[in-house]
Amino acid sequence: MSKISKGFFWSAVDYFSVQGISFIISIIIARLVSPSAYGVVVMVQVFMAFAQLFIDGGFKGALIHKKDRTDKDYYTVFIFNMVIAVILYLVIFISSPYIADFYHAPELKNLTRVIALNLIFSSLSITQLIKLQAVLDFKTQAKARTTSVIISGVIGVYCAYKGMEAWALVIQSVSSTLLSSIMLMSFSHWMPRFIFSIKSFRNLFGFGSKLLFTDFLTTCYIQITNLVIGKIYSPAQLAYYNKGFTISMLPSASIMEVLGRTIYPIYCGLQNNKDKLDIAYRKYLRLSCMAIFPILILICVLSKPLIIILLTKKWVEAAPLLSIFCISFITYPYLYNCGNYSVALGYAGLNAKASVIKRIFSFVLIIIALNINITAIALSIVISNIIEMYISLRVARTSGGITISKQLGFTKDLLGISILTALAIYLVLLIFDNYYLQFIIGGFVGLVVFIGSLFIFRIEENEYLKLELCKFYDRFFCRKHII
Hints:
By secondary structure, the protein is mainly alpha-helical. The chain has helices at 3-32, 35-56, 59-65, 71-103, 108-115, 117-123, 126-134, 138-161, 166-188, 198-232, 235-269, 274-301, 303-311, 319-329, 332-344, 348-370, 374-400, 404-409, 412-431, 435-456, 462-482. Helix 1 (3-32) runs parallel beside helix 8 (138-161) and helix 14 (319-329) packs parallel to helix 17 (374-400).
């Protein structure tokens, strides 16, 4: 198995094991705590997201992009992360009473101070994660993060069972971050030294600041929306909105994270070979869509039975929001791949400028929708994502010369198959009234229609998929038999 194939495999093991276990744990905890308690923690996470963004500082992407990385670069990033983390923790600690007053929720004062410890704990291992990702070593990450998620999950479920409500979510989050950092430092066999290079910092920040700016705009868009919803609407409504958003985001974000952690270094490695980079861009865009489209279609059409079965009827108001968000995240493969493609070609600045234009549209739509209702806010995100996708495609065209129509043409067959799959699942909902039958039969029919259509319409990846399945079979079965 090649280094890239191993990277994909262990990246998938790492991310899906962590996200899969985390998802199961979040479902169990959500069944034990009230939507209001969940909403209170989401309010706190708004401030954590901004703080965590500045701790990273764009250095992750900058270090991976840099070909001649040195230990001095890693030491510099580690010290920067730690110093910023401590400063931001102190700022949030002092500001916690004002955060509680803003939301008129006194319990947020102590909750905020405890969950903010995640900033310091996570900063201990950011550099190790960058170092491992740069060399496509996801096996080490998988061991550390999966173990920490399981242990912290057990702790969180126990706390929720004991009626600790919001504190159960906070304790689970902090223990997960702490355990993950300890294990990553132990398994990576890399210890930091207190060496800080001004030259290294300037070089990395010159590129990383552009990535930081782009991420900052996206974080503002998502988290300010949560902040305003938490202020205008009730904690329960914020919980419905957030749960619909996070469940719909899980498959697209998880798959793109798995692919992206391998794809971005590949793109960067091909930055001086335009023809091969274009081939890789088309290949991974199609691969992303082929993995994400069917899952989002299933969740979109089966949102109501899915929510009721997983979270009970007390969360049913999240179902229509979940369906809407699934539509918006269909654009995610385009946004992610276009961004990485243009950055790999050295157009991080253009990507940042495009982000400003995207966010102008996004904020205007959100401001209009905030005065209507939660559903209008979700719909505004769908419209915003479509506009963002168009802008991202234009950036990719400017960066690499591939026309927008050609880029869209890369995946038109997969989109058509997805629409056909959605119609088949919807027919199942019309036939059956029982939520369990809708979910089981609808899911089965959807998968059969999608997979069957891939072969009926003879998509170009058929032979590739067959080859990879054969390689997988040979690696895990034939070799053992021979031995």
